[in-house]
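sanity check this record:

:::
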Amino acid sequence: MWSHKRIFLLVITASVCVTAAAQEADFGFTMPVTISGGALYTHRPQSDEPEAGPLSAAFHVALYPSLKLGPHWFVYSSLHLRSTPFYYYDAYDADHEIQLDAVQAFLGYTRTHKSTTVVVKAGQLATAFGSFPLHYDDADNPLLDQPLPYATSLKLRADQLACSAWDLDWASYAGNVQLHCGGATGVESYGLMPVTLYGLPGIEVDVSAHKLDTRFQLTNSSPANPQSLLSSSQNVQWTGGAGYTLLAGLRVGASAFRGPYLDHVVAGFLPERLSIRDFPATGAGMDAQWARGRWSASVEFEWFRFAYPNFTVSPTSTFAYGELKAVVNPRTYLAARVGLQRNNHVHDAKKRGEETFVPNHQSYELALGFRPNRWQLLKVGYEWLQTDEVTGTRDNVLGIQLVTSIHSLSKAWR
């Protein structure tokens, strides 16, 4: 386990050693850096460990090293090192850990002809589903939390099968999810995230022309259950999206994905003559972004269905959220986000589930942002989370973040 002091020294040393020489060149290296420190006050850890205290502190370092290899070729990466709990959803786990995630690390090729630009990428990619995954940088996100579809675990497991609606009704939601009709044993899981923020191996083609932008991605696994290239549970599947700028400051978009998401370990427990490819995960979404003057807003609607053996009506979740940001003055802004989650009643061959397979959620978040200087952003926020199964303020969160952005780390060769 790395100590916090050693990690901060590593980042600071790298920042000092790289010389600043920002200029246009066919060959060059750049590495923007975002360093965030934060603290949370919430009783969420007590759902995992009753003796856990409500106050915790953590850090997040985001490195974006990239190489320009001529007029068309480039290498880009997005590396994230953080301690937990840093984000609000981390707080449900009382453990304190260090995590390193390569959100993106790909080789790219770009070509422009008149008003059309084509970009091809191959490597570790952020999912092409949804509008939020490219806003994971703390300096880019005006609030402290992530929207519900990117930060909510469903009471499902890709490595275990549920026997019936009753099995899902009685499966624990807070803490370790356990299902009972075959699959992995002795492995803990907090459930399935509908869509990942942490990247998948694959290839992607982006095409933009005039007011239209499109993207198409082939990955080795589902955005709902990302796998490494060494995994035995890889299955090629697609994700696509598009957006259109209706007028200056207003863009609308849509995206979708579909493909197998169950792990290889459950293959032997499936009905006869069926494989995991017969049980895909499907996601569909719509989004819009608007900005005018000191005001900006974004909204997103997402629908997910997880085909599951032993069910005539499979688990389905619907999410919607909206954000609004108002710039009060050049140093200060206010931001708010409202999120909703609705889940269905699953049906097995005999009965309908007594409860929705996951409790319905509503979240309300407010944040105040202040820039003491052009490199730093101080954010203070509070989130109210309402859940069908939980009353009171136990799951509410008070958070604070100090975000420092370093944009000048670069070296041009010619």
User: Anything to note?
Assistant: Residues 1-23 have pLDDT under 50 and may be disordered. Helices lie at 4-17, 165-170. The chain has one domain: 4-412. DSSP finds two helices and 21 strands in the chain.
